[in-house]
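Supplementary notes for students who missed Thursday's class. We covered one full example, reproduced here. Read the sequence, then the structure, then the short commentary at the end.
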Amino acid sequence: MNSISTFDITKYFLLDVLKDIKTGRIQLPDFQRDWVWDDTHVRRLIASVSLAYPIGAVMMLQQSIQSRQFKPRLVDGVLKPENYTPNLLILDGQQRLTTMFMVFLSEQPVIIKDQKSQKMIKKWYYLDIKKCLNPECDRRNAIMSLPESKIARTFTGGLIDCSAPEKEYQALLFPLSKVFCFSEWRSKFSKYWQYDPQKLELIDTLEPGV
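Structure (token representation):
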């Protein structure tokens, strides 16, 4: 029996890890349980990431073509990967990596478990820019989730409509699915507001934390 005798502690950029998940270079061993986080867990992780808080290490197993210890399967949310042969398998950290992939890079709504019905539902996640920049506001309260339609009623009977980019700009809600293409989003946001100095100041203040 071959034993695992070599360990390596390596730091990777988050975007590189998520891209490798998208292409299938990083997958899961088949025995890993399914991803089942709810909205509270997702928003809590996003808040920690946005504040650059430590979220714990992940453990991966290098898998070569010659010696495959486990059968791989794709991370939830991955569609049509470029490479079906993984280099690494996620042993610990599946929930965190799956959440970040779904929110930041999948370009699809995040599939979560509804806390009340226990059914699987789809959500998009946004950063409320004004709340995010308010030092007295808890970061978790600055993270908003909307249904797949991107339209929702507030507790006071109002309507939040982010069904088009222009409506996101109007509502001052930043879609977290655009976090890795912030410059492009900022350019369109600025053009929408006709380069209003107050709106540009908001984005200038927000950008270092995105």
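Commentary. The helical segments are 14-23, 39-50, 94-104, 129-132, 165-171, 182-192, 197-206. The chain is about 30% helix and 20% strand. If anything here is unclear, bring it to office hours.
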